[in-house]
Amino acid sequence: MGYFGKVKFFLVLLIVALQGCFEYEETIVLKKASSGTVEISYIVPLKKESNESLLQFLPTSEAEVAKKLKSKSKTLAPPREFAYRELEKSEMVDSLFKRKGKVSYKIDFEDSAELEAILIGNTSVKAKPKFFQIRREFPFLADKPNEKSSSGEKKIYSESLRFLKDAKLNFKIFFPKDSECSTNKGFVGLGSLTYGFLGTETMDPGSSEGKNWEVKIRFF
Prior knowledge:
Strand order of the largest sheet: 3-4-2-1-7-10-9
Shape: globular
Number of strands: 11
Mean pLDDT: 80
Radius of gyration: 19 Å
Largest sheet: 7 strands, mixed
CATH architecture: Sandwich
Helix content: 10-25%
Low-confidence stretches: 1-19
CATH topology: Immunoglobulin-like
């Protein structure tokens, strides 16, 4: 697929999925360096005549979530406390989509390496008895058009940025309060770390450093 085709494909995805309707929240609760729970919730647009998500990688059924996890890890337990509901019209503001669904569930893990199968983005985890490190990259979806790009390519890129501006991604990590945490992104509090960004940041073709998130936690 050429540049124009690739960008056009992502634009279609963004129009369908991200125009003021995509929200993702993720919370990791670390009991110790090697185990814990991930709590995930998201709001996605629904297909016109069913409760299926228009975003294939963020399904709305418990069976599909379990299937997705199993395809990535044979050791992960199925999600628990799964909940799904369709949003009321009063909860939707300035959206092209008449129907949206909200999904939430929890996933327990006994090996921190399993986080690589659970979390979105490119994820790498290292853990020792008293040390936990996670590195994540949220790659941009397309390169910024150059001077040789056609007017159509430039328009698609600018439209993609506009559609992405309201997409929100929020991340939290909770850990024992007597631990020591350092990170290159986000806010560190007593026993907690929060980090969030807008979808437009995934379209920024600048330095990859802006997309990389690294967290180190030392347990005492």
